[in-house]
Design a protein that fits this description.
mainly alpha, 103 residues, single chain
């Protein structure tokens, strides 16, 4: 959270810009994914965020379909990881798994 407000050497995003909304999504979505709370909807939103980030930023930095050459490999990996979480869902030890036990 400190990084979103310019702490730890980070940059502060102007309020209500795309970078600001991305920061809010990551500040809220990151802990929810770690805890396993509302995993599928949060992972779906974060997957979309990563796809938008790739197509707005990285696709213009090099060959469009080569993430290793346009510096978008981390964005693509995160996008597919969140897509995996959407399909696989939370694990048994997550908060979702504990709250919504299948009997």
């Amino acid at each position: 959270m400190v990084g979103a407000f310019g702490g730890l050497g980070g940059h502060t995003a102007e309020p209500f810009t795309l970078m600001w909304f991305a920061g809010i999504l990551e500040i809220v979505g990151g802990p929810l994914i770690i805890l396993g709370l509302f995993t599928r909807p949060v992972a779906f939103i974060l997957c979309g965020e990563m796809a938008v980030g790739y197509f707005l930023v990285h696709i213009h930095l090099g060959p469009p379909l080569f993430p290793l050459l346009n510096m978008g490999e981390i964005t693509v990996i995160n996008c597919f990881f969140f897509l995996y979480l959407v399909t696989a869902g939370p694990g048994a030890l997550s908060l979702d798994g504990m709250i919504f036990k299948k009997t």
